[in-house]
Amino acid sequence: METFDSISKRVSIREYKSKPIEKTLLEKLVDAGRRAPTARAVEPWEFVVVENKETLKKLGEIANTGSFIKDAAGCIAVFSKDTKYYLEDGSAATENILLACADLGIGACWVAGDKKPYVGEVSRLLGAPSDLRLVSLVSLGWPKEKTEQVKNRKLKDVIHWDKF
Ligand SMILES: Cc1cc2nc3c(=O)[nH]c(=O)nc-3n(C[C@H](O)[C@H](O)[C@H](O)COP(=O)(O)O)c2cc1C
C-alpha cells in the first residue's frame, strides 16, 4: 500500500475478531515504531508487546479509556525514557505503529498513556522500570468491520499559506 493510502485509511478500530496476529507482524509493528524520528537521536523508547489474554484483560480493566483492550488480539505499550522530548518521540513511534497497522490491515486504536491516572498501575502490571514513562497503549486486532476515516476539518479549513 502506498504511504498516502495508509494515512487516508488509518482509523481507530476498537472492535476485533478473535483471530490472533502472527508474531512476525507484531515484530513488524515494533520495527515501524523504532524507525520514527527522535529528538537528538536518543531513541528513548521501549515497546512491550502484550499477547497474554489475562494481561490484556487486566490492561482493559486498568486503562478505563481503553476497556476494549480486553478483547484485543494484542497491545503494544509504548514507553520512553524521561527525556526532554519523550512525549514527541513516543508519539511519533506510536503514529508509525498505527500507520503500519493500516498498511497491514490490522485494526488499532491509540489509548492514552501519559497524563492518565492509570499509568503507574499499567507500568507495574507490565514490570516496567520506574524511570520509564508510558506514552501510549496501542490496542490491536483484526477489524470486525470496515470503517471509513472521518475528518470534520477539511484541507481548506486548516491550511494557511505564508500567514493566517
Ligand atoms: C493522544 C491520543 C490519545 C487517545 N486516547 C484514546 C483513548 O484513551 N481511548 C480511545 O478510545 N481512543 C483514544 N484515542 C483515539 C481518538 O479518540 C481518535 O484518534 C479520534 O477519535 C479520531 O478518530 P480516528 O483515529 O478514527 O481518526 C486517542 C488518540 C490520541 C491521538
Largest β sheet strand count, sense and barrel closure: 4 strands, antiparallel
Low-confidence stretches: none
Number of strands: 4
The kinds of small molecule bound in this structure are:
flavin mononucleotide
| Helicity level | 25-40%
Please give the CATH class. Answer: Alpha Beta
What does this entry look like structurally?
The protein has a single domain (3-144), classed as NADH Oxidase (3-Layer(aba) Sandwich), CATH 3.40.109. Helices cover 36% and strands 18% of the residues. It contains 6 helices and 4 strands. It has a 4-stranded antiparallel β-sheet, with helices on both faces. It is globular and about 50 Å long. The mean pLDDT is 98. Residues 11-12, 14, 65-66, 109-112, 149 line the site of flavin mononucleotide.
Throw out a few tags for this protein:
binds flavin mononucleotide; single chain; NADH Oxidase; alpha+beta; 164 residues
What's the arrangement of secondary structure elements?
Layout: H1 3-9, H2 23-34, E1 45-50, H3 53-62, E2 74-81, H4 86-104, E3 107-112, H5 119-125, E4 132-141, H6 155-158
Antiparallel strand pairs: 1-2, 2-4, 3-4
Helix pairs in contact: 1-4, 2-4
Bound molecules: flavin mononucleotide (FMN).
Summarize this structure briefly.
This protein is α+β, with helices and mostly antiparallel strands and 164 residues long.
